[in-house]
Amino acid sequence: MRQLRPRRPRTVALALLFLLLPVFPRALRAHTPSATFLTLSLTGTNLTGQWDVALSDLQQGLGFDPLAIRALSAEELERRQEGLALDTVSRLELKTGGALLPLNATDYLNVTLNEGEYARVRFAAASLPAVPAVLELNARVLFTIDPHMHGLLRLEHDGKTETAVFNHEHPAHQFSLVSPANKWRQGWTFVGEGVWHIWLGFDHILFLLSLLLPAVLRREGDRWVGVEQFPPAFLQVLKIVTAFTLAHSLTLSLAALSVVQVPARIVESVIAASVALAALNNLWPWFRGKGWLVAFGFGLVHGFGFANVLTELGLARQTLALALVGFNVGVELGQLAIVSVFLPLAFGLRRSWFYQTVTFKFGSAAVVLIATGWMVERMFALRLMPF
Questions:
Q1: How many whole angstroms separate alpha carbon 286 and alpha carbon 63?
Q2: Residue 109: pLDDT above 70?
Q3: How far apart are CA 54 and CA 117, in angstroms?
Q4: Angle at the Cα of 91 (from 26 to 64), degrees rounded to 5?
Q5: Residue 278, Cα to own-chain centre: how many angstroms?
Q6: Are strands 93-96 and 116-125 parallel, antiparallel or unpaired?
Q7: Which residues contact 284 (CB under 8 A, 6 or more apart)?
Q8: Which residue has the higher pLDDT, 20 or 38?
Q9: Which residues of 349-359 are buried (b: 16+ CB within 10 A; e: fewer)?
Q10: Residue 238: C-alpha distances to residues 233, 273, 288, 338 (Å)
């Protein structure tokens, strides 16, 4: 009697689901939260500030469904957004010496940042009685608009710049204005920012995984088959990740230092095109064995995308070098975490029908469709997709 090989569909399915978890973390959300930027400037006893929030986040904060939003006139929507933004800033909690500082909005306007269309609220506190030694911030009110927003804070005082990140779980920060800024703490802030950016950068992850998917396969005639050993797959992944790292590190530095400037719409459109082309190559290969070269070429463009978060912060030159190093380290740590999960699972599943058909072929086709939608959205400033 012929001995049947044990089938493990449940194991394969669970492993595949775990493999794809980093790829589709936000596809189920109807709204993708943006970064929000808070800037505080202290000069003597004068404290001023600026809050930038995505218009899409403000619209979500209004509590209307998409149909109700479309029913509003442009003037009415603008009026409601402005009212919500001004009310939110007035309830921002800033303290010195334990005393709450009342804040007054001085200006409201719409601005275009690299990340999209934003509302900007400028505000000021009444003149302080003395130069404060400690400044306490609790920004929890900002997250009543959208608890999933990611906050970036810049504090300028005495010719120095301090930075921090804040979110719904950790909205409070305390700054000592008399002791030197802790550079190690700031460096770790940007490391964390780099990890966050790569993990929630849906397009960057899809580009990377589209290049990694064929690393555990080899071309045999007109079909893909699993590689025999792990070392060739590991070497292929090492080439791809190294090329991508070198390329985006170069353009990230050039863009953040303002040596090279490329319009955000062009950068974001080309990033979407790179995702589509990388996935399309899995269906109709034309750069066989040259994935590292594609990773380098398009990695140059992705570097400009990574630079957006640093340019929006408007960091001083003395802080920028530390931010570049920390952010780049964070991006690499985020990439390595994805690869360390992806590669062992992909190698273990490489010969299964599930990997070669569902993950590789149908997954690549899905990525092509998603990335093409992104490209059209970004080229023509449209909103067609929910993520």
A1: 48
A2: yes
A3: 6
A4: 45
A5: 20
A6: unpaired
A7: none
A8: 38
A9: bbebeebbeeb
A10: 9, 23, 16, 13
What is the structure's pLDDT at 180? 65
Per-residue pLDDT for 41 more than 80? Answer: yes
- The larger pLDDT score, comparing residue 164 to residue 241, is at 241
Report whether 327 contacts 189 (CB < 8 A): no
Q: Which residues of 55-81 are buried (b: 16+ CB within 10 A; e: fewer)?
A: bbbbbbbeeeeeeeeeebeeeebeebb
Residue 59 has pLDDT above 80, yes or no: yes
pLDDT at 48: 96
> What single letter denotes the amino acid at residue 16?
L
Q: 35-43 and 150-157 as β-strands: parallel, antiparallel, unpaired? A: parallel
CB 203 within 8 A of CB 275: yes
Residue 308: which of 248, 361, 351, 362 has the closest Cα?
248
Q: Which long-range contacts (CB under 8 A, 24 or more apart) does 215-220 make?
A: 215/240, 215/291, 215/343, 215/346, 216/343, 216/346, 216/347, 216/350, 217/350, 217/356, 217/360, 219/285, 219/288
From residue 315, alpha-carbon distances to 260, 268, 271, 318 in Å are 17, 22, 25, 8
* Strand arrangement of the beta sheet that strand 150-157 belongs to: 103-113, 116-125, 46-54, 35-43, 150-157, 160-166
Report the C-alpha gap between 372 and 358 in whole angstroms: 20
CA distance 347 to 356: 11
Q: Is 151 helix (H, G, I), strand (E, B) or coil?
A: strand
Q: Which residue has the tokens 């292929």?
A: 236
Average pLDDT over residues 73-84: 94
Query: Rounded to the nearest 10 degrees, what angle do helices 363-380 and 202-212 cross at?
Result: 140
The domain segmentation of the chain, as residue ranges, is 9-28+192-380, 35-181
Q: How many CA atoms does the CB half-sphere of 152 hold within 13 Å? A: 23
pLDDT at 1: 41
Closest C-alpha to 87, from 137, 145, 152, 153 = 145
Q: How far apart are CA 202 and CA 26, in angstroms?
A: 8
Q: Is the dihedral of CA 277, 278, 283, 285 positive or negative?
A: positive
Task: Reduce the DSSP state of residue 46 to 3 states and report it.
Answer: strand
Best CA proximity match to 74, nearest among 32, 110, 29, 31: 110
- The alpha-carbon radius of gyration of the chain (Å, integer) is 24
* Residues contacting residue 136 through CB under 8 Å, at least 6 positions apart: 93, 94, 95, 96, 172, 173, 174, 175
